[in-house]
Amino acid sequence: MNPTDSVQTVSNTDEGKALHVSEFYRDSVVLVTGSTGFLGKVLVEKLLRSFGVKKIVLLIREKRGTSSAQRLQQMISDPIFDTIRASAIHPDKVFAKLVAIDTDFTCDEFVREPNRSDILKEVQVIYHKD
User: Fold this and answer.
1) What is the pLDDT of residue 104?
2) Are 47 and 33 in contact (CB under 8 A)?
3) Nearest residue to 124 (alpha-carbon basis) of 14, 30, 50, 44
4) Is 32 exposed, middle or buried (0-12, 13-18, 19+ CB in 10 A)?
5) Conformation bin of residue 92: beta by default, left when phi > 0, alpha when psi is -120 to 50
6) Three-state SS for 31?
7) Tens-binned pLDDT, residue by residue, of the chain (130 aa)
8) pTM reported for the whole predicted model
9) 130: which residues sit within 8 A by CB, 6+ positions away?
């Protein structure tokens, strides 16, 4: 599907009303797993650059002694984010929408409190890399 296509939504009040993709994501909170991989970076960059999301919550695990916050900083230094750095008036404000949450997918509770409650309250869209 092309990002400029419309998404057909059905609800009790708006049966059959077409919703543009950019409207769907505007001011939403999106959760992404696998964000430090190639496709994850592409997804995060596109969400930041094109859709006016409020926040993107990234579940990132510690890897080889590198914390999730450090891995987020490494991720946004990738050249894929150069367009945002070059075109945004305040790229720091754009990147501030990214929130790294420590996770451990080997545990039953892979997100701990208070982050778990916050995620359950805030997140509207989830992208999970399986």
Assistant:
1) 75
2) no
3) 30
4) buried
5) alpha
6) strand
7) 444 454 444 444 555 677 788 888 899 999 999 898 999 999 999 999 999 999 999 999 888 888 989 999 999 999 999 999 998 889 999 999 999 988 877 777 777 777 777 888 899 898 988 7
8) 0.80
9) none
The amino acid sitting at 48 is L
Q: What is the Cα–Cα distance from 87 to 64, expressed in whole angstroms?
A: 33
Q: Name the amino acid, one letter, at 47.
A: L
Quote the CA–CA distance of 121 and 15 in Å, as a whole number: 26
How far is Cα 106 from Cα 18, in angstroms, rounded to an integer? 40
Q: Give the three-state DSSP class for 99.
A: strand
Q: Which residue's entry shows tokens 């909170």?
A: 29
